[in-house]
Amino acid sequence: MVQAKKDEVRKEIEYAALKVFFEKGYADAKMNDIANEINISVGNIYTYFKNKKELFYAVVPPDLVDYLKKVLVETIHFDNQNAFEETNSEQRSVLLQEQIDVLRKYRNQIIIIFEKNKGTIYTNAKNELVELMIETKKAYLKNQYKHYEIGTEENLILLNILAHNVIDMNLDLLKRDMSEDSRKQIFDALYIYRLYGMKSLNE
After folding, report:
1. Structure pTM?
2. Angle between helices 62-82 and 89-105 (to 10 degrees)
3. Phi, psi dihedrals of residue 39, rounded to the nearest 5°
4. How many Cβ atoms from other residues are within 10 Å of residue 63's Cβ?
5. How many CB atoms lie within 10 A of CB 148?
6. Which of 29, 63, 117, 159 is most open to solvent, judged by the fewest CB atoms within 10 Å of its CB?
7. What are the C-alpha distances in Å from 122 to residues 15, 106, 166, 172, 203?
8. What is the pLDDT at residue 143?
9. 201 pLDDT band (50/70/90 cuts)?
10. Where are the domains of the chain?
11. One-character DSSP codes across the chain
12. Average model confidence (pLDDT) across the chain
């Protein structure tokens, strides 16, 4: 019974912390702010977490970034290998749903990682993700962008622009106040846009 109560309090602290970190960012969040959210003393928080840093990484863990990278790499490989093969539509739907589930479940954490990360290990998270996208995509460059007759250096610049664009589009969608159904519909449309371009949205 006592342990169950402790676990409940810990979850309440983590929930309050995530809310405060999301609203204020790590640098500006205070332990007092978190304590006030659930009407407990700051000292009580220190019973469960030795400092703000430990609490932050409990609710925005590094392994979440690793998971995001894993899903991203899988998506890039799949898209480049199967983009125009209708036989893989079911597999594409499964992969797309996994992305949507991740974005929905960890919406606040993802926004914190990429936009409210001052003072954390995530200050360079966006650039790291862009670099990962470029490195993963490089293997497919020889078969891409032939129509434009651009060289390797230009390809890399183009990939950099596109990678930033993908991240920014998804962050913009996550930050908007809307129903999850609406968010999913727009995410689906963005996915189609990434694969086939603007024209495909009208087909």
Report:
1. 0.85
2. 160
3. 55, 50
4. 8
5. 9
6. 63
7. 20, 15, 18, 18, 39
8. 54
9. very low
10. 2-59, 62-202
11. -HHHHHHHHHHHHHHHHHHHHHHHHHHH--HHHHHHHTT--HHHHHHH-SSHHHHHHHHS-HHHHHHHHHHHHHHHHHHHHHTT-GGGHHHHHHHHHHHHHHHHHTHHHHHHHHHS-TTSTTTTHHHHHHHHHHHHHHTTGGGSSGGGT--HHHHHHHHHHHHHHHHHHHHHHHHS---HHHHHHHHHHHHHHHHH-GGGGG-
12. 84
* Residue-level pLDDT at 85: 55
**Residues constituting the chain:** 203
How many Cα atoms sit within 13 Å of 51 on the Cβ side? Answer: 2
* CB neighbours of residue 196 within 10 Å: 13
Tell me which amino acid residue 176 is.
R
Look at residue 149 in the predicted model and tell me its pLDDT.
55
With vertex at residue 131, the alpha carbon angle to CA 141 and CA 84, rounded to the nearest 5 degrees, is: 40
Determine the pLDDT at residue 150: 56
CB 183 within 8 A of CB 104: yes
pLDDT band at 1 (very low <50, low <70, confident <90, very high): low
CA atoms 53, 58, 64, 66: torsion sign: positive
- Please report which confidence band the pLDDT of residue 2 belongs to, taking 50, 70 and 90 as the band edges: low
